[in-house]
Amino acid sequence: MARLGTGRCGSRTTYIKMINFIQLFNEVAKVVKPMHPDFENAKALDDKLAEIEVDSLDALLIGIYLCELFGIPEEKGKELQPVTLRDVHDFVIANKTTEPESVEAAVEAIK
Predict the structure, then answer these.
(1) What is the per-residue pLDDT across 65-80, written as a single tens digit (0 to 9) for each?
(2) Structural domains of the chain in order of their starting residue, each with its CATH number
């Protein structure tokens, strides 16, 4: 299993910058939807999940993985009801207690 960062979240610049968050979201979505031919990678935080073929079940599963990666308690994760990728991003930033060391480490941790 890949090592996740354990430093205080506010002690340094947010590691998962916007472009990295979008990349991480796309990688998690590929784990959730491995055989879904209609999935279109998110390109911007303002992308609507429905427009990139992420339905409510997909969003729930992606949210579960992201909560695990960012140390967000399961009960808090149940509050996530995103419409856009920005909704997911803002939720993670507001509630995270840890961060993955990299997108690659995060993807390895959820495989």
Answers:
(1) 999 999 999 899 989 9
(2) 14-110 (1.10.1200)
